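Backbone Fold Data
Goal — C-alpha cells
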Amino acid sequence: MPHTHPSPAIDHPGRTTAEPVAPVAPANLSLEERLILANTVMTARLDEAAVAYEVNTAHIPTEPIDLADIVTGPVYTGPAPLPELYPTPVAALLQRAHHRLLTDGWCAGVLVDEDGARCMLGAIRAEARGDRGLEAKAAAVLLDVIRRHFGDHVDTVPACNDAQDSSRIPLRMLDQAAHLADARGL
C-alpha cells in the first residue's frame, strides 16, 4: 500500500511538522470517482481544522451573549419624509398623492375608508386641497398613464383603482403620472 503521509520533518527539509499529503488519484478513475476522492480528502482536512480550532481556542474565556442586546427590529420613526417635489404643480400634486398612498394606505371602492386609506383619486383630491382645476389636470394625466398601461378600455381612474387587489399598481401609476406631468411641464 502506498505511503500517503510523510515521515517527520527530517524527510522534508523546511517543514517543522508532519503535514498530510493528498493521495494521488490513479489515472484510470472516472471523473465522478475523482470528485468523490477529492471530497473525502477535503472533508478530512476540514474535520482536522475544526478540531485544531477547538483546541487552539479552548483557553479563551467567553461569556454567553444575550441576542436581545444585539438583534433589534426596525424602529418606527413615523412616515417617510416626502422627497423633493417636482417643480411643476401637477407633477408635485401627483407625487404628494403617491406619498399619501404610501403613508396612509390604499383602498378600493371608496375615496377614503374608515382607517383613512385612500384610493388614487382620493389621494389626489386630498392633496389638491380644494383646487378642482389642479385636481382635474392631475386626474387627466393619471388616466393617460393608466390607458398607456392597460389600454383604452379603462374609462376612469376609479375603475382602474377598484380593479386592483393591492396598492402595487396604483402606486406605480401615480409615480409614472408624476414623471409624465413633469415631462409635459404641467
